[in-house]
Design goal:
The chain is an alpha+beta fold. The chain is built from 5 helices and 9 strands; from the N terminus they run E-E-E-E-H-E-E-E-H-H-H-E-E-H. It folds into 2 domains: 139 residues, Nucleoside Triphosphate Pyrophosphohydrolase; 71 residues, Arc Repressor Mutant, subunit A (Orthogonal Bundle), CATH 1.10.10.10. Strands 1, 2, 3, 4, 5, 6 and 7 form a 7-stranded mixed beta sheet that branches. A two-stranded antiparallel ribbon has the order 8-9. The N and C termini lie far apart (52 Å).
Length: 231
Amino acid sequence: MYLINFSDFFTSAFSVDCIIFGYSEGKIKALLIKRAMEPYENFWAVPGDLVYPAEDLPQAAERVLLELTGLSNVHMHQSQSFGKPNRHPNGRVITIAYFALIRIDDFEIKASSWADDIKWTAMDEIPELAFDHNFILSETYSLLKQKLLNEPVCFDLLPERFTLNEMQQLYEFALETEMDKANFRKKIKYVPMIAHDEKQQNVKHRPAKLFSFNKKEYSNQVAKKDYQFKM
C-alpha cells in the first residue's frame, strides 16, 4: 500500500511550450530555437520555459515566446498537457502546450535570452529535439491537420492574397498526398473567397490569379449555420 505524503504533491514544476506554425515554399513549418543552456545544450527545441510561481499560464506563454523569439501579439491557443514523470532530467515538470498559426512574412523572429539561434523548419525535416519535444510537436501537428480538414484555418497560414495552387500545396503537404487539381477546386467551391483582378508578380511561370478569404461572408454563413468546411 502506498502511504500518501502530501508534501509529494507540491514538488512539481510547470512549464509552457509554444508551438508556432507557419507556411512557406510549399511546406508547413515550425519555429525552433537552439538551446544555449543545460539540459540539452545545443539541441534544437520548441520555445518553452518554466512558469513563474505567481504567473498565469497564458501570461507565461506570451512571456516565454517574447523572451526567446521576439514574437509578440501572437494569438495562441492551449492544446494539450504533457506530464510523464521522467520527461525532464531535473525533476517532475508538467508542460502545457500552446500553438499558433502565423504568416511568416508578417513577423520578425530573433533569438534572445538563452536561445542561441532560431529558425523555421519544415515539418518533414524536424531533427531530434530536446526533452519530449518531438512528441509534443507531432501531437500538436496532428491537431492542426484535423483543424485543416474541418475549419478554414489554412488562411491563417497562407499569405493574405494567395493563389489556389498555393492553397492546394498546403493541403498536399499536410495530408502527404497529391491532389487532382480539378477535384481540389470542387472541394473548395463553397469556401467564401474573393477573386481579385490581380495576378502574381515576378514569377517564372504563367502568373496565377490572386484570391483572399472572405471573412465577412464566412461570419455570415456561420451565424446562419449555413457553412460546412470539409476537405
